Model the fold of this input.
Amino acid sequence: MSITQADERVRPATSLPAFARTPVLATSGLTALLLVLAGTHTPYFFDELYYIAAGSSRNLSWGYMDQPPLVPLLAGMNDHLAPGSLLLLRLPSTLAAAAMVVVAALIARELGGDRAAQLLAAASVATSAAIVGASYLATAAIDPLWWTLIVWVVARWARLHRAGVRADHLLVAAAGITVVSLQTKYLVPALWAGILLGALVCGPRALPRQRVLWVAGGIAALTTIPTLVWQATHGWPYVFRMAAMVHNEWVGGPQFVTDTLLYCGILGFWVILIGIVRVLWRPQRHPAAFLAVGLLVVAVAFGLNQGRVWYEVETFPSLMAIGAVETVALARQIPRWLSYPLGAFVVLSSLMSTLLWLPVGAVAPPASILRTTADATLERYRSLPADERDHTAVLAADYAVAAAVDVLGRRAGGPSAYSADRGYGYFAQPPATADRILWVGLSDPPAGVRFAFTECRAQPQTEELRFWDCTGRTTPWTAVWPTILTNEMPLRPAEPRTPA
Done:
């Protein structure tokens, strides 16, 4: 399709191309099947154990240091219904991925894409990291669905607006989806900022003037009050601590670019590139220009702001849907003898790379370092004298080790675990009766921990873990814990050193 033909899509029209139901749903179903195979043959990811611990009855909350409550709630609920079931734990991610494949095709349809474009959009998403990451339960596996749904609803509103049809209900629906996204991650305001900026630059400029959009958006913002209250009462750790952690974990611009190319997938990369070039060639005349510009600005902003590539993945399905329409249009200008083999090569290589990423060939979950960690810690704990165990707390160096001990170890009859690392530090601190700790982790206990005990002795180590036995606590946990969280040295009490 030429640029002139592409411009024809701008003319008001309420009709849509036929939905490629069979091939799109088949792609979605195959995606779900591969994710089930991969998800049931892959051991726990450390964040999954953290989500389970966060969503347990002991720690369930309106907010957390590093995220809103939805994913911990799902993890805790599913693990409570079927403890140890990887299938049920990862079912939300599987369903989200399968739905995202369909929604991407629906976006392509809203932009005038025929059956071929819809299938290409679905296939691009299905072979990207947005899907590969869904083999685990994670915020980054679920939140892209909400972004993609919002883009679809806004694209539909824009099409009807061009046709002179008022569709305020769609903007209300988009606000409703935003509510769910705000309970998954805190990133969706960036999407709306990009969409509104794109509308101001490329049109439809009526979008930012829709009163119903701002009213519904304001109501959506009110639903975050419980989480914001939690953040405020805990010193805004997401703003001040989590942002610093993301900054420290950022690997740099070149690595971010290469990760972006890798996570797009082979097919997705070319589809996005073709789409961006063709749409931005004449943005004022293209119906998807405001979406392409907005999503591109958001993706670039994440890169420049030292974000993780998983933040950028949120934009991939929608960009692939836009690009699929343009890629099919371009392919029809290329001789079939050239376009067919090129297309077949890209699709097959994308499928092969996806299968290599997904561990679908295993017959049973392999041994996990997390399971080994839990077992080794439980063995050390049980080696303590029986009368000492009730006064001993397991303190982990980082949240991954704490989650492994807290979830896997407790299933085997072990104790609770505590950690001051990241979100775990905002759960319960060790009880006042715990005047002894068994330290476990990849590193030695910091000075803030050793300073609070009369004696800390290194224990025999495993290949991966360090163990320490600290006895004779001299400082109350209420004083020790905040100093560990902030990496400051605790003050010794002036009164005699008696356990709190």
Observations:
- Confidence is low (pLDDT under 50) at residues 1-13, 360-367, 488-500.
- Strands lie at 392-396, 417-419, 436-441, 453-459, 466-473.
